[in-house]
Design brief:
This protein is α+β, with helices and mostly antiparallel strands and about 525 residues long. It is built from 19 helices and 15 strands.
Length: about 525
């Protein structure tokens, strides 16, 4: 047996390499190897009493005890690294290890021994044990049962503050934040802040069956709150609520809740905060202390375990954080608008009397029908009763009415002709009230349904040669007369054509007479 303990103690006393080699009877190469491995694994003097030569050998060179058994040695670093990958299990790694052993004509360890040796290695040398939890796979979230409080400046009354807790089971790194309510907005906001704190997203979120996040959860059906589900889609993660009355499904967060209740909430019992911002500032200080506290049974802390063993496995955050939105249903009114918080937003008039889904965010109102996008509006704020109307949502007759402005009237007249433009300009200038002028022009525009642009332009041109004060009534009369004249002329032309374009006719000579 190599004198590991004596080598380390002599080195700590400053004895030279030559002196240590002479004192222990080991080669300088072996002494150097032991000292370098001790530095690499953080084993320093003074050593505890139970750290004898056998313990130190198992700690520094765990593979030696395995090699002595005659079995095919295990590559623990490889096993630990592979376990971090998705869907890789100890069962799969043991199967590969057995195949490799047989290929090398060596005896493999049994599956039980394989697990036991890896567990001993991970407990000694690694911050996380990956048998049960993979890095970056799960985030467990819950509300703490113990509440904190803030003090109302005006009344001195204590106001409850609810603590949200999120834990990464692999590294045990936790996040906590205080809110004045456990409503949906607080729940979603807490998730967003937790992702930002961890700097990434896990594959799965395990939550409790609280009503703000889970609408229905049975053995056959799971219905999530639409906002919660949308947030999960934004961060490309999956919500998997714990089974009802099954706290073991989120044991890590349950354990962290207890620890946080002691080391954070109870630690702040004598701290008086007058706003939720002040409370969260103090809570964040205690949270940093909690995450950096050394483990009692192994090296490192929650934070160091996260940095070394789990941070790399988190999915990156999206470019923009999720914007909290709320879902409601609304019925389309006869005026093809829906009411949202006493503001009115239009939808296509074809959906009058239909039920639609409304997504309400801080700056947008988005309307869906049977999961199909219909339209979006910028959210209105301020006095009640404001209206947001999109022209394309109107029936044609409403569009005509809304379009009555001097600019639109001029634009329409230009599309007809110069005489119509002169008539419209005269109407706009002649009436004392612009509204009256636009009503007359509206009546003129409606004529386009019965008459062509050429006919309207011709009537306006004829009227302007007769008077300098054209009226819509006169134009209507001219159009009717022109229409009548055109019809009569067309009839006369048809008669003439029938008279001239006759068929074959027998002459008088055919009947024995003489043609004149």
């Amino acid at each position: 047996m190599i004198h590991y303990r004596k080598i380390l103690e002599l080195h700590d006393e400053g004895i030279s390499l030559r002196g240590i080699s002479a004192s222990t009877g080991h080669s300088r190469q072996k002494v150097t190897e032991v000292m370098e491995m001790a530095v690499k694994k953080g084993l320093t003097c003074p050593l505890d009493e139970e750290m004898d030569d056998k313990w130190i050998e198992d700690f520094l060179f765990p593979e030696k005890s395995l090699e002595a058994s005659g079995r095919h040695p295990l590559n623990f670093d490889y096993i630990h690294k592979e376990l971090a990958k998705p869907n890789v299990t100890l069962s799969l790694l043991h199967h590969e290890y057995e195949a490799e052993s047989r290929a090398n004509n060596k005896i493999p360890y049994s599956y039980r021994s394989f697990i036991r040796h890896y567990g001993e290695y991970a407990q000694k040398h690694k911050a996380t044990l990956r048998i049960r939890r993979k890095p970056g796979e799960i985030l467990e979230v819950d509300w703490a049962g113990t509440t904190a409080f803030i003090i109302d400046r005006d009344t001195g009354e204590k106001v409850k503050a609810y603590i949200f807790v999120a834990t990464l089971p692999c590294s045990q790194l936790s996040y906590a934040e205080a809110f004045l309510s456990m409503n949906l907005q607080s729940w979603i906001c807490a998730h967003i802040h937790a992702y930002e704190y961890f700097g990434g997203v896990t594959q799965i979120v395990v939550s409790d069956n609280l009503k703000t996040g889970v609408t229905k959860h049975t053995s056959r059906e799971l219905v999530l709150n639409p906002t919660y589900k949308e947030m999960a889609n934004h961060y490309d993660t999956i919500i998997m609520p714990a089974r009802v009355r099954s706290p073991k499904d989120k044991a890590s967060v349950e354990g962290s809740v207890g620890a946080i209740s002691t080391w954070i909430i109870a630690a702040l019992r004598n701290t008086h905060c007058f706003s939720i911002e002040e409370l969260n500032e103090e809570l964040r200080k205690k949270l940093e202390e909690f995450n950096h506290r050394p483990f009692t049974r192994k090296e490192g802390s929650r934070y160091s375990a996260f940095e070394e063993e789990e941070k790399f496995a988190l999915s990156p955050l999206p470019g923009m954080p999720y914007k909290i939105s709320e879902w409601k249903t609304a019925k389309v009114r006869p005026d093809y608008h829906i009411s949202v918080e006493s503001m009115f937003y239009s939808v296509p008039y074809e959906y009058i009397s239909r039920q639609v889904d409304v997504k309400i965010s801080e700056d947008m109102i988005v309307i869906y029908f049977n999961h199909m996008w219909l339209t979006s509006h910028k959210r209105l704020y301020g006095r009640f009763g404001q209206i947001s109307t999109v022209r394309e949502h109107m029936p044609d007759n409403h569009k005509l009415f809304v379009d009555q402005t001097p600019e639109v009237a001029i634009e329409w007249a230009e599309s007809i002709g110069s005489s119509t433009l002169s008539t419209v300009r005269y109407l706009l200038d002649s009436y004392q009230s612009e509204k009256q002028a636009l009503q007359s022009i509206f009546s003129l525009k409606k004529l386009e349904h019965r008459y062509s642009k050429y006919e309207i332009e011709r009537a306006c041109k004829t009227l302007l040669t007769m008077t300098k004060r054209p009226t819509v009534k006169s134009i209507q009369t001219l159009l009717k007369n022109n229409k009548k004249k055109d019809a009569e002329q067309e009839l006369e032309q048809n008669i003439e054509m029938n008279d001239t374009n006759f068929g074959f006719t027998r002459g008088a000579s055919y009947y024995g007479g003489k043609d004149k």
